[in-house]
Write a structure and sequence with these properties.
six-stranded mixed beta sheet; Metallo-beta-lactamase, Chain A; binds zinc ion
Length: about 220
């Protein structure tokens, strides 16, 4: 089984996730956006062994605590290379938005690409490149439990903003409709902000990318 734990961190209330194999306790830490003591608390409580730090994208609210998390957990960091520039800007972003003690540029150990997979204990996870919110935005899909971590690409009833550098609404739309929706209506998603949901609900009624919106009813 895949066990999922959540902490809502930082001034933008970003969702940080720990996804662990219930048998081996091996885990992946997703988007440590700050408030490391709380994240480390979750990991200790579950007695999890974090083997990787996965960044869905390079924005400060998802990556501010990555360097410290790596130091504390001894786990390698991975992200898509197209978000390198965002990581380089972490100190500036952190200062601008008031992230306490965060914003250190992390040393990246692995630049992941679309389609590659890794194991988390007995679970398999697959990287899906979903550009649009940022050029390097990626989702992490667990085909066993049919669960996907979408970062800031798809939210419950919304989508990520595309007005920042590297953002592109057409790309975002394509990523969601061509990469995330095909995972299946019954797939569950955990996103970068706000509540989790079902892919099928967004396929039908998401006001930006759902069927109704694409028919023009909300344009
Ligand atoms: Zn973002
Ligand atoms: Zn965010």
């Amino acid at each position: 089984m895949l066990v999922v734990r959540q902490a809502v961190v930082g001034p933008f209330a970003a969702n940080c996730w720990v996804a662990a194999c219930s048998r081996t306790k091996e885990a992946v830490l997703i988007d440590p956006g700050g408030e490391l003591p709380r994240i480390l608390g979750l990991i200790e409580q579950g007695d999890f062994q974090v083997r990787r730090i996965f960044l869905t994208h390079g924005h400060v609210d998802h990556a501010a605590g990555a360097a410290e998390a790596k130091r504390r957990l001894g786990a390698p960091i991975q992200i898509h290379a197209a978000d390198k520039e965002w990581l380089a800007q972490l100190p500036r972003q952190a200062e601008m938005f008031g992230f306490e003690g965060g914003g250190e540029v992390p040393e990246v150990d692995h630049w992941h690409v679309h389609g590659e997979s890794f194991t988390v204990g007995e679970q398999t996870a697959q990287v899906l490149h979903t550009p649009g919110h940022t050029r390097g935005s990626c989702a992490l899909w667990f085909p066993g439990p049919r669960l996907v971590f979408t970062g800031d690409t798809l939210f419950s009833g919304s989508v990520g903003r595309t007005d920042l550098p590297g953002g592109d609404f057409g790309e975002l739309q394509r990523s969601i409709t061509a990469v995330l929706f095909p995972l299946g209506d019954d797939a569950r998603f955990h996103c970068g902000h706000g509540p989790s949901g079902l892919v099928g609900d967004e396929r039908r009624s998401n006001p930006f990318v759902g069927e109704d919106a694409r028919r023009g009813r909300f344009v």
